[in-house]
Structures are given as C-alpha cells and as structure tokens.
Design a protein that fits this description.
Elements (H helix, E strand, L loop, with lengths): L1 E6 L3 E2 L7 H20 L9 E5 L15 E3 L1 H4 L4
Antiparallel strand pairs: 1-2, 1-3, 3-4
This protein binds zinc ion.
C-alpha cells in the first residue's frame, strides 16, 4: 500500500509515499506553493487529492485503479 497525491488539473506528485504522514506533508506543500503563486498574481491551483494505491505504477494514474481509493482530507488531517 502506497499513498500518492493526484489531481486532474494539477497532475500528480509522482511519489509512492510509504506513509500517510509523508503524503500529507507533500500535498500540503503543494497547496501552499499554489496559494503563494495565486497571492502574487499567478495561476497556482491545486486540485490534488490523496489516494491510497495498491502498487507503485498506479501513482501516475490512481483514479479508478483497482485497489485505489481517495483519502478525504478530513481523514488525513488527523495524522501528524
Ligand atoms: Zn508526493
């Protein structure tokens, strides 16, 4: 089981995170970066969601894969 972050518009981080804490740090860093870009007139935008995936090769295409599911932010925000 791996964790990755992917959005149809933003694309994915390409990582196969081994734990949800690392995946959370990754998705939050991307959201902060996008927010910074927006605040300076850029077009930063993050539609990434966190996925649990069954294999490494699913990280670039997690949606709809067998064994993958979206982990809602209400769930991953509990992990520190
Ligand atoms: Zn990542």
């Amino acid at each position: 089981m791996y964790y990755t972050n992917f959005g149809n518009r933003s694309g994915g981080c390409g990582h196969a995170h081994k734990d949800i804490i690392a995946a959370r740090q990754c998705i939050e860093a991307h959201r902060r970066k996008c927010a910074r870009e927006r605040s300076t007139g850029g077009s930063g935008y993050s539609d990434r969601q966190m996925y649990a995936v069954a294999s490494r090769d699913a990280v670039f295409d997690p949606a709809g894969r067998v064994g993958s599911r979206v982990i809602e932010s209400s769930e991953w925000k509990r992990w520190y």
